[in-house]
Protein 1
Amino acid sequence: MTTQSSQNKKTPSRLKVFFGGYSNKGIKDENQDAFAALVPDANELQAKGAIATLADGVSSASKAAEAAQLAVTQFINEYYATPETWSTQKSAAKVLTSLNQWLFSQGGMFDEQHQQWLTTFSSLILKSTTGYVFHVGDSRICKYREQHLEQITRDHNRKSAGNHAVLTRALGADNRLKVDVHQVDLQVGDIFVLTCDGVHDFIPNKVLTRFLDELPAQPSNADLERISEKIVERAIQEGSDDNVSCLLVHVNTIPQRKLDEIERDLLDKTIPPALDVGMKLDGYVVRKVIHASIRSHLYLVEHEQNKLTYVLKAPSANFADDSIYLQGFMREAWVGERINHANVMRISQGEANSKFLYHLCEFVQGQTLSEWMHDNPKPSIAQVRDIVRQIIAALRAFQRLELVHRDLKPDNVMIDAFGQIKLIDYGTVFVASLDENQENIQETVPQGSLNYIAPETLLEMKADYRSDLFSLGVICYEMLTGELPYKPMKRAEVTFSDYGEWQYRSSKQFRSELPLWLDLALEKSTAADPRSRFQAFSELQAELSKPNSSAIEEYQRQPLIQRNPVKFWQGVSALLAIALIASLLN
């Protein structure tokens, strides 16, 4: 396998946008409008997107100008400070909630005495092939495509006596923020128009369209700024009695890569050949071959200069043509550099200029949980509780970053001599921010390991933190019983069509001394339907810590057919057999 020369590689299309805006105080003494826009570097552009935002301070508020300026600058700064793994909507929602609470705390209510920090807010985040709109108030975002201007946002105002518009929603007006959220598909050539009411209340769409028609097919930032200024000046000429601001956003290119282009990028580096003790790779000396399989190779290595020890992980050459696997392998290192938790194995990418595909993992001395279970066939509840507690701590770290492990199983959990747990091997991890992009190869098969994979992933190709909770429930069950909560499946048997086809097997079948409250907790954590499971890791942890008397009472009130359908039908069969024998004797 060889790398392609840079001369022969066609540069893949990426999102490329241009901005241009203009603002004027108009006939007023102070300009209480503000706008801002930013295109970050390539890495942040892929994970977080580009932003354009406009705010119009509420003129009756004593700090209108400050509120508008704070809203646009803080939103952009804080949005890019959120984890790169978060989805666009989660990142924006967190920032807007925090921003609104601060503004509201400064005064905020809609009354004569406390209108201090109030502003409208309209923002467009462009990421991959999608535009994400977040809107509060009566500033406006429109889309201009193929000479047609379409309003995307809804004005939050009402007409009062004298036909004056009264604002009904603004940042800082209420501690319970209600934001309009929309998604729009992006096309090359789209122009998004962000305006305050001082512009769009005085310029009809047909006039605005004529200005936009003056733009060249591929406008520069200067072109967009020039047209924005002309729009603002026209609003003033038309008698605008407010501040006047316009921000234009042009979509120059969007990701349109074909599958072979994406695969070519993935194959840009060479998979290392199988290594042996004493061999070197980028200055790392192999001290031990830890594991070799058809999927990957693990080596204990030592850096020849700093003498630090790592585990070097490289994909197997068997997967050289498997783009989904290679994408997951690269994603694992990307996530590993962004998650920092005592119960998660640290991972970093290999040497930056290396031609080889591999990454470096924290060396964890210990055994897999599978091996531990073999050595401890009937562990105490306390032992299992401690292990589950640590796994939950790790999974919470994933959840906070909007990550889903998706391949939680005993072989992917390490336990050292002191009982500390480390989650390893998260090459199938789901990343919310990357899932929004078109630059990734879409998965066509469920990700995970049979008998640990959540039913919703098999049925619907969906996974969230509850899917990891299901897998953890299966592991907990297996540690206690040595069995699985459902009849073990072979891949050829995965033909279930609904959740009702998964039939839970009581843990007391395999260890009769286990308490009922524990079995009920295991049953709920491994419920096939995610809606019937615990809805938080903390619920599972609490249920394993002390008996839930209400759950036991509810269970005991159920008819036998619900509590133990197998026992119920065995009893029915026995009664039928007795009745049959009696009829024959008569």
Protein 2
Amino acid sequence: MQKKWFALALVPALALAACQKVDDPETSMALPEVAAPELSLDTMRDITQELSSDAYEGRAPGSAGEEKTLALLTKKFAEAGLTPGNGDSWFQDVPLVEITAKNVSDLTVKGGSQDMGFKYGSQMVVTTYQEQPKIDVTDSEMVFVGYGINAPERGWNDYEGVDVKGKTVVILVNDPDFGTESLEGEFGGRAMTYYGRWTYKYEEAARQGAAAALIIHDTAPAAYGWNVVESSWSGPQFYAQSANGGADQTKANGWIQKDVAAKIFASAGQDLEKMMAAAKNKDFKATPLGVTASMSFENDIDKMNSKNVIGVLKGKTRPDEYVLYTAHWDHLGRCKPADDGDDICNGAVDNATGTAALVALAEAHVKAGAPDRSIIFLAVTAEESGLLGSKYYADNPVYPLKQTVGGVNMDAFGMAGPAKNIVVVGKGKSELDNYLEAALEVDGRVAEAEPTPEKGYYYRSDHFSFAKLGVPMIYFEGGEDLIDGGREAGEAISKDYTENRYHGPKDEFDPEWNWDGVMADLKVYYTVARMLAMTDDWPNWNEGDEFRDIRDKSRAGS
């Protein structure tokens, strides 16, 4: 998934500081006093280096890299003083199917002013959710469906008046409000909604009966370049096992380059830019393009049980109330080679760092003694394949969600050095913001809302699997306002990571990394969860938030 790379300021005094007890009359919330201890830099550095070494082959689910990751994590969890979190086992099986496309044909488009063919990898990528050895999409009519959204509660339906059964729908990435300056609009203004995510677009295309769904890649609204699409969508793809083997899904899901889409539209006598502008309006009507698409490929199919890793620190007074830490241990395995031939996507920042943090935090919490509530340390699989491991746990919780107080998600610690701020993805959604602000108050740092809500980070990491089932989760990252160089330097480092390392073979461990911001960040993660584990409050989503009603019903036992 897409992560932005931020860094936190290192403030040595934090090690000795405590969060002041705060009584908030509006929320009736008492925040306990919690000291932030020293955490182990050696643990963070050593585990990050180990997990991202070539020996782990990119930590793909079902690989030898998974076996090594599981062995390392269980060893380190036990050494930290945790106990197995699923009865006598450290593991929760997550049933997955691995589908690897091979012998992929060109995407051929016929019926316009000229017949065209587009190459797999450089111009298009395609996969399937169906467990079929061969996929054929032949002379399928192409229909432009704008943003591919059917949202009756918003009075918006891009599929209204058109039958796309058996056809290939062409879809824009993000949602119609992309580019809006404010946070007001049909789809949250500049902030992306779930309707803007590729996962939703494929889900809706399948509900409409489409044979294939192709998203037009555009770097700004997608929030990443074509290199990320190509490396992420080629090679083995993982999906949740289903009873019908994906028979209710489209035959093919994929992406096409924007210039490819422009050529297809021009051949069909249409102007892509004008059609994109029209799709932003509620009165947009889906447009048959008068051309057909064909593509075919074979699939290697392998069913497996990947594993979530669960450790627990039992609470001393209320052990049946739970605080959750999440981080994903998986990455992409082998991917498109870099120019030097390196084809291992090591995933050092994303997310060997977050996985190492689970261990470092476990060490610190155990050393501090059992808190009142139990703390669950959950390392999930298959985040990179669509949050599959966290979704499976949320749907099949080892510890009941209605007894889960809340949680903290960790996904990619940056190495830019000290900064003055941190960034909260989804700031203002829940009362957990109060815990974070108390943890930050001692050193004068500030929590800021994400600067680019249009990129939809809230829907791209494992906290979302729990949030949509009502569990309050907070997800924050280091800031870009660096002490050395300010925002300009921070933005440059973030851009460099996204363009040159993110989801590619060069996200590798670097012995010269500056860990100062990481370790300050880690203390905040410690403090927020420790406060949750020591209070008797049950923080909720803020009034009016989309997840508030789900939580209220869960807590009421309905």
Protein 3
Amino acid sequence: MAELTTPMDIDGDDNNPSLKPNNKGKNVAVSGPSHGKATPWVEKYRPQSLADVAAHRDIVDTIDRLTSENRLPHLLLYGPPGTGKTSTILAVARKLYGAHYHNMILELNASDDRGIDVVRQQIQDFASTQSFSFGIDNAKASVKVVLLDEADAMTKDAQFALRRVIEKYTKNTRFSLICNHVNKIIPALQSRCTRFRFAPLDSFHVTERLKHVIEAEGLDVSESGLAAVVRLSNGDMRKALNILQSTHMASQNITEEAVYLCTGNPLPKDIEQISHWLLNESFTESFKRISDMKTRKGLALVDIVREVTMFVFKIKMPPDVRVLLINDLADIEYRLSFGCNDKLQLGSIIASFTKARSALVAAAK
């Protein structure tokens, strides 16, 4: 594909906002490791092409083939944060339009007004305006892209208005909707798009991408430190890169302990100790010791609950007791997310384990 060299003057026309480069939403890295040290690694190492996307090769290859054949449909990409949804669409735009793709894409996310007026004015104006750019194949130059990131934040009225806009301007515009919760997108919009689910990245792909960054930045990372970053990221590549960068800023040697201290998460050995108290000590003693550790190490109770829940899966106990205990912990985590009192919820945790311990004793008899 030929490179864009001389965009027409109309592309920079200040009197026509629909033809101006759109810089809203997430900033986009133009090149990889050439960025300065102050650049967040999330943007510095954002994939620049579809081949660079870390995972979901089946989805990426399908979109790549549709793009090459000029059969790109309207897209609805959904799944947890940091799984490559936005990067995939931006890579598609670069493939279609080259380095000056900003002239051919309107990018909006939840930081912008997402009401019905935006659909009727900004999006419709952009979609209805014909764009011409030298250096782009005519078939591709006639099609622009509207990227609606975090589309599940759109109001219902805006989504209903978008239905008609999508139908009306299908000949010259492709709409790409990105969201975390697909159930918040009305069925009428879902039916107009080809849906792809981006699942959380598996540890292998996160590890491989982090190794690339570690090598490029010349970092000193231990195997346990890398494993800790991967574990705490929970399949979120953005979170993994942020943890790696923040830990590097705090410590030259990235170890497991440095990662946990930087993120404020309880160390595995602390969780083992807390679990031991919960299973063996009295209510008063457990409450006192856990409160002391929580205050001394600055731990959040919700993080303790989350880690203890994972530890419960490693403990040998009857399945019915495990299910009841995990359900209790899930209820406590839910209440903590709404700002319930920490002391009351800590008491609930200890009470849940006391009940489970009684059930274990009864089962042993």
Protein 4
Amino acid sequence: MRVFALILIVWLCQACATELSVGKVSSPNNQLHALVQLTKSGELSYSVNNKTKPLILPSHLGFTLQKQAPLEQFEMLSANVKSYKKQWQVPWGERKNIRNEYNELFVSLKDLRSERKMNLRLRAYDDGVAFRFEFPQQKALNEFVIMDEKTDFNLAENATSWWIEADYDSYEKLYKQTQVAEIKQVQTPFTVRNQDGTLLSIHEAALTDYASMTLKHKTGSQLTAELVPWQDGSKVKAKVPFRTPWRTVQIANDAKSLVASDLLLNLNEPSKLTDTSWIKPMKYIGIWWGIHLGVHTWKEGERHGATTERAMQYIDFAKQHNVQGVLFEGWNKGWEQWGTREAYLVPSDDFDLEKVANYAKQQGVAIIGHNETGGNIAAYESHVEDIFSIYSKLGINTVKTGYVAEQGFSNGEHHQGQFGVNHYRKIVELAAKYKIMLNAHEPIKDTGIRRTWPNMMTREGARGGEYNAWSEGNSADYTMTLPFTRLLAGPMDYTPGIFDVDFSRFDGQRYDWQGQEQKAGYRVHTTLARQLANMVVLYSPLQMAADMIENYQGHPAFKFIEALDVDYDDTKIIDAEVAEHITVARRANQRWFIGSATNKDAREVSFKLDFLTANTQYQATIYQDAKDTDWQDNPEAYQVVTQMVDHETTLHLTLAAAGGAAIIIEPLND
């Protein structure tokens, strides 16, 4: 307490001595307070308090421009505060109704050394704060190039943090847990926990025609924005009127409130699509896991995965088991040379695209198309309209895109730079024209744009489940970190649902991508029950049951996946702790689906079902770890328990290390 009091006194004294208050805005519940200030010399800063406790100390704001004086010293022209409160509906998601309520401070500024003008718009929500910069139409500023965005986040504590290193092209790394002072440069969302348990997650919203923001360590617990550069070293090329993405700080008193935040969605523009009836969340299967295991290959040959015969088998399985879609990767020629016309438009000799599409249509099963660009953006953009047109005629309205190019695109630009941001958006908008839903791998990070373009369904943007097939894999701790970091940004196509978790059922030969024999020792690092839980916990509106269908055939646990819905009316975060455990309940119509998962530690979980409708009897079917389940030695042991429950029932679960439970709760018939 003495340390906190000293920090607060010093901060207030410094503010009184050197700062001129521009404006203050508070959250609707009056818990969060954001202050914008100017020094006597015109330096702009902001700060954030939770009640009276500092969360972000005065933090500098400004821009360095190319061949122009920097925008770092201002005078205030005007400032005003307004309030907004409205509820809106999403066409799909974790919940149908979202409350958008905030208080906004709008500050009009002028550069002290010129007539250039800039606005700062800052909003305070109950679940965080956000601000963006706007460059209005003006004579003093037209076209300009941003060389550096000097947005600081001067955290009040050297807090515990969870992060992955920034590299401008990939998010596929394992999370680290350190103090803030130990980081160098990290991707967002960047989540920290203060000593009193308060959680902050720094990210951005509505990333449009701008470079992605990473965070660079300055000193102590102070961070600064570091934008992903163009090849020429510049960051953003702009023309007025222009505005930046929102810089966001989600704030919560506990982990379950952090996960429940709708801040990013609320900061995006409403949908640009008047008709969203064609956008339908779904479960899907595919030959993808067999390819990653080395059983099949993408390219043509004796082990080619996407054959007409295998496609028919997967379509039949989907039809029989309430799975709405099937993904066929490697159906096309040109895998040796990405970017050619064959790589996008010409089926392989053993795959009859028209026959497969017609059969799928007859069975009421959706085909998910696959476009791997290999990072050759020019080639993909030259073919993509033809691709989408052909897909549309065949009744294929979902596409998985891929951008495997670890060192950037073939033109030298980065995935996460302004060039990449604009390319990904171009594809989303073109897909909407042809009524196509997208699942992007190696994507630009999610910033809530699914509100504006609801056909942008899901994306990878983190280290997914395929790493378990051919590397040291993803630990249970890693997948317990995702809900509090990557998934705060939006849905993720992690690809859960592996039943043969230790690969013990496979008795054939496996190969790596180069055709060499695959070495042994790889596996999934959870129990089977945890794989079911992941289907609920790791949300995606296009949710893949990722295992080969041979491992699902006749398996009693697959009944949970058969029953699972992936488009929800409501979601409750029952309990959670960062990187340790989470229990999530999601409602589709009158049925609830619950996923409970833990990290490497076994744990007892208890929670009351008070979210159920009162005076109604339900049946709960619980798929959970068995008494002898061990993720290393006996991972596929599980048990199914059925019991009657109501809104006063308390469920007690025993989760094995790296384990979980998946539950279906449905009302009994009258």
